[in-house]
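S1.2 Input.
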Amino acid sequence: MTKAFTSVNIEFKGRSPATDILEKAGFEVVVEMPSEGWPDDETRQKLVDVEALLAGSENLNESTLDNARNLRVIARNGVGYDKIDLEYCTSRGIVVTNTPGAMADAVADQVFAFILALTRQIISGDRTVKEQGTYDVIIGEDLSAMTLGLVGCGSIGAEVVRRALGFRMRTLVCDPWVDSARITGLGAEPVDRDQLLSESDVISLHIPLTTENSGIVNRDFLFAMNEDSYLINTARGGLIDERALIDALRSGPLAGAGLDCQVTEPPTGVSLDLVKMENVIALPHSGSKTIAARERMSIWAAQSMADVHCGKVPKFVVNRKVLKNLALR
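S1.3 Output.
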């Protein structure tokens, strides 16, 4: 029987719709979940006789895939695909898919968890009550009096805008790839980078990590932000120059940061120095980790795997050039 392999959990509350989809398509489903991702040599070994992979955060490049001669589809359980060598996969005829929108609600909720925790000093207030038993005066900020700026407005960014409207925040969006009419239709204002930096009290990042935008949030970006502003990153750690962010939090304009991701995960070196700062709230890349989001992601990924196996074009193909040489309908 054809083998489908998954390195992420696809069972929720005792059920696994993703497994049902794959087995109905004719797959033998193998689930093996590492605690912190597979080492490259182990990834290579696991994929020897696999046709379809439901991928987590493992590195998928020539060195890990060269032995996977039966592999036809990699279904990324998430949005980001920065750990997948798309050019190599395309050359091999391997279809790569992702699940855009599946976790939009979950990540957008986390953005506002960060915003509220930072602007109302929830973490420090909780610590004071528990550790000291005192009621220190904490002066927070009203979100309705603040301006939220988004870098990027895909499916997650759009959900953040919708939540911002509920808090009556003015919302700015900088995204040259999204039509201005769509941004205004959501209730936000399309702006350029300079206006975003000069007028936003909170800036939230919602763009993929690519070679072109690695470290795009650099010293110039950070020190152009408003005084006592906040930075939220639920996208990818590599978007930020972490040394520059440490400086901006220590002696620059930033009052705090909410980070769900770091350059190195789990954090070491500069990333660890950053997350240990008192004015930083850090989480373990958990923005999409809700039951509803994870189940939806696994279903969409499994359907992509089944589609390729059955000769169909999946809905969310990342490397669309691969379709030119495949007999998919």
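S1.4 Remarks. The longest helix spans residues 291-309.
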